[in-house]
Design a protein that fits this description.
The protein is mostly beta strands and 110 residues long. It contains no helices and 9 strands. It is elongated.
Length: 110
């Protein structure tokens, strides 16, 4: 009887941002919980970016070295700063791990 290596299914690394989901209006000075799910080895920490995709496109790291989470779920509480972030549309959140990332649909900041 021949024996060989045992193979298992390893999930492809993936991050899926669950909030914001693109329909929100975030308020300056108010806390907001950014949430995500993940699968596979995305790394032990993530970076979270605020991206403006409008006429004057820019991006800014809002958190570095955030623990990826537990049991496939992660979160980070962020207070929308009044400094350097104006009101408007066309904002997204991007989360990047070591091997993969995700970006939300656009939302508003007021």
């Amino acid at each position: 009887r021949a024996t060989g290596p045992v193979f298992g299914i390893v999930p492809k690394p993936a991050i899926d941002i669950t909030a914001p989901n693109g329909s929100e209006t975030l308020q300056h000075g108010k806390p907001y919980r950014i949430t995500w799910t993940y699968a596979g080895d995305v790394g032990k920490v993530v970076q979270i970016w605020l991206v403006h995709t409008g006429k004057y496109a820019w991006n800014r790291v809002i958190a570095e070295d955030v623990p990826v989470g537990r049991d496939g779920k992660g979160s980070f509480e962020w207070t929308v700063s009044d400094v350097g972030i104006w009101s408007g549309t066309d904002f997204t959140i991007m989360i990047s791990g070591t091997t993969t990332g995700d970006e939300t649909r656009p939302f508003k900041i007021k």
